[in-house]
Design a protein that fits this description.
alpha+beta, about 25% helix, metalloprotease, hydrolase, protease, zinc
């Protein structure tokens, strides 16, 4: 038909659970939860934890799998699962295979961009955490005061 209008459905499809329920009361707790997952990749990956109003994790979404030293992070892809999960906030995480957790210029730009997009959507970026390969090092943008955050997290109570 010439004037046919297609109807589409958009749904959140749940995958099998990767983790047990765990209280995230610090950036270190976030890293403990996610470090094993992030260490399994031979490339840089970016993922988010979608959060409820009360600070509980709804789910994890692997947003981007990149190259050995970069991953493409587009706000549209980051917030897609957050909107579908009805999240009020997110925590972003990515790995640096080198083990060096110093944020790159691109890391800083992406963080600012995600924070601004989240403000427009009403989904706050609570933290962006860099995990250093398998060496156990981490950097929290929030702890390092590189992120202006209004929302509270459990470890601030």
């Amino acid at each position: 038909m010439e004037n046919e209008l297609e109807v589409v459905n958009i749904r959140l499809v749940k995958e099998p659970s990767l983790y047990s329920e765990q209280t995230l009361d610090s950036p270190q707790a976030v890293v403990e939860l996610m470090a094993k997952e992030l260490s399994q990749y031979d490339r840089e990956v970016f993922c988010i934890l979608n959060m409820k109003n009360n600070g509980q994790v709804i789910n994890m979404n692997l947003v981007s799998v990149g190259t050995i030293n970069a991953s493409l992070v587009i706000p549209r892809e980051v917030f897609k699962s957050s909107i579908l999960a009805n999240a009020s906030a997110i925590i972003g995480l990515h790995n640096h295979l080198s083990g060096n957790v110093k944020p790159s210029k691109e890391d800083m730009i992406v963080t600012r961009k995600l924070q601004k997009c989240g403000q427009l959507l009403g989904i706050e970026l609570l933290d962006h955490i860099i995990v250093g390969g398998t060496n156990g090092k981490m950097l929290s943008f929030r702890e390092e005061k590189m992120l202006n955050v209004t929302g509270r997290m459990d470890w601030e109570r």
